[in-house]
Sequence to fold (102 residues):
Amino acid sequence: MKAIYVSLLAAAGVMFAGAVQAEDADALAKSKGCLNCHDIDKKKVGPSYKDVAKKYTAKDEAMLAEKIIKGGKGTWGPVPMPPNKVTPEEANQLVKWILSLK
Fold:
């Protein structure tokens, strides 16, 4: 019986940690100005994050993080995305959060 309780507590902890990480990434996106041009579920200047999540997989994480840092153009239309002042760790956190929005 103890093993069941321990398993349930561990699962709850993992779910809570995932929710906290999502809140942290959302707050990071807001603080870095990402949501000025992007929205979670609708196109603004740039694509919605849900559209990005549909197009890419975990295999694309490094490329997407680099694009967040250096900027990009042409993938989603004629408006370029400027470089962003984020650390590689912040870019990776944002990418993981975006891809989780599927």
About this structure: The two ends are 36 Å apart (CA to CA).
